């Protein structure tokens, strides 16, 4: 049976509490890896990433552990190189569409690294970082597109500085270092869903 967007079990009525920057309806796993945005700077860019830990494997606690600084270096050979990293994203969307939030959206996450967008460097200052569980070689799921579109619409409501025209991939702001979310990410599908979800709000 073909699963349509209407049958994907994602959280209805997502919204961001403007006072706290928390996404109502998401699982919260708060990270210590953040700091304040520069004074007066509001998020006006949404950056889509792809991540899997260990590489190519889905599920498990390891992404949460990486972003909270508790990744055990001896649980997998790959972890030895990254266990000491101090990195974070604002949220993760799992393969089944579940959204996990690591930071209030008003805080500065450490997701973009050395980056530039439209002549502005240091994209962490003015962006929201959303990780999708996946790889460059694996199509993302319909549930992930649905959740990402719902999350984007909720962010647009909370932060008027954000909008559909300012959604990019990590590869767009750091093209010499990063390839995610990868060539199989369906930007057309996302933009259609974002338009639909935004019109419904």
Overview of the molecule:
The protein is of the alpha/beta class. It has a single domain (28-200), classed as Peptidoglycan recognition protein-like (Lysozyme-like, 3-Layer(aba) Sandwich). 22% of the residues lie in helices and 19% in strands. It has 5 helices and 12 strands. It has a 6-stranded mixed sheet with strand order 3-7-6-11-5-12. Strand 6 (91-93) and strand 7 form a beta hairpin. The chain is globular and about 45 Å long. The model is unreliable at 1-11 (pLDDT under 50).
Topology:
Layout: E1 15-17, E2 22-24, E3 27-28, E4 34-35, E5 45-51, H1 62-67, H2 79-82, E6 91-93, E7 99-101, E8 108-109, E9 116-117, E10 120-121, E11 127-133, H3 142-158, E12 167-169, H4 170-173, H5 187-200
Parallel strand pairs: 3-7, 5-11, 5-12, 6-11
Antiparallel strand pairs: 1-2, 4-8, 6-7, 9-10
Helix pairs in contact: 3-5
CATH architecture: 3-Layer(aba) Sandwich
Along the chain, the helix and strand elements come as EEEEEHHEEEEEEHEHH
Count the E strands.
12
Q: How would a crystallographer describe the biggest sheet?
A: 6 strands, mixed
CATH topology: Lysozyme-like
Number of helices: 5
Top CATH class: Alpha Beta
Q: Would you identify the CATH H-level superfamily? A: Peptidoglycan recognition protein-like
Largest sheet, order of strands side by side? 3-7-6-11-5-12
Q: Strand content of the residues, in percent? A: 15-25%
Estimated structural class: alpha/beta
Distance between the termini: 29 Å
> What is the CA-atom radius of gyration, in angstroms?
16 Å
The tally of structural domains comes to 1
Gross geometry: globular
The percentage helix is 10-25%
Report low-confidence residues grouped into runs of 5 or more.
1-11
| Nearest-integer average pLDDT | 93
């Amino acid at each position: 049976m073909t699963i349509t967007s209407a049958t994907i079990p994602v959280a209805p009525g997502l919204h961001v509490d403007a006072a706290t920057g928390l996404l109502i309806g998401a699982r919260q796993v708060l990270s210590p890896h953040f700091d304040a945005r520069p004074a007066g700077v509001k998020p006006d860019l949404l950056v889509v990433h792809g991540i899997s830990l260990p590489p190519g494997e889905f599920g498990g606690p390891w992404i949460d552990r990486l972003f909270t600084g508790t990744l055990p270096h001896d649980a997998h050979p790959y972890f030895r190189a990254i266990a000491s990293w101090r990195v974070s994203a604002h949220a993760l969307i799992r393969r089944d569409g579940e959204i996990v939030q690591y930071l209030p959206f008003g805080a500065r996450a450490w997701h973009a690294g050395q980056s530039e967008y439209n002549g502005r460097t240091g994209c962490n200052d003015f962006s929201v970082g959303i990780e999708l569980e996946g790889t460059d070689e694996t199509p993302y799921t319909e549930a992930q597109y649905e959740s990402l579109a719902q999350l984007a619409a909720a962010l647009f409501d909370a932060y008027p500085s954000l909008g559909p025209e300012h959604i990019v991939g990590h590869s767009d702001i750091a093209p010499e270092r990063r390839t995610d979310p990868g060539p199989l990410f369906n930007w057309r599908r996302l933009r259609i869903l974002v338009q639909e979800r935004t019109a419904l709000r």
